[in-house]
User: What shape does this take?
Amino acid sequence: MGLVQDVTRWTTAFFGPLGVWGLFLLAFVEASFFPVPADTLLIVLVLEGSVPWWVLALACTVGSLLGGVFGYGIGYWGEEAVLKRWFSEKKIMRLGKLLQRYENAAVFIAGFTPLPYKLVTIGAGVFHLRFVPFVVTSFVSRALRFFLVAYFVYVFGPSLIALLDKYLLLFALVSVGVLGVLIVREGKKALRKKKKK
Assistant: This one.
């Protein structure tokens, strides 16, 4: 069994019987504290075909957006103590610098790619990113992701699942690489500005 199939079986068994509401719930918890991506159940429900693909994508988007807002609240009121449960002080400081420097770009990349979105939603609250831009960026990135996934699964069917299973890790690594390039580029810009001063 591949990664996508294994995770899909588990999420389908737990959230699947609830249909659209199960998808909404999974998207909500995944955006704030749960480790399993909502895409897994989204794919299964689109393939079943009992509910229009765009309705499923919309439910997933709204659930994830609200879950992201909840995650923001966890970080905002829980502060760094929340992150200290999982990460060292050094990693927390690194996340803080990343979010404070890139703000919307970091939120968008985490929202659109397989990177852990909940880490950014909680971190955005901890480091007090501007709330309205956070919500707008989260909505755009999550909508793009879920509508694209739902549409392509609807059009290409099971053949797309094998492709996802084969290239999911590669896609995640490329996403991290893109983020790394952005960080290095911005770092160089900051150094040039300091030298000019």
Notes: The mean pLDDT is 81.
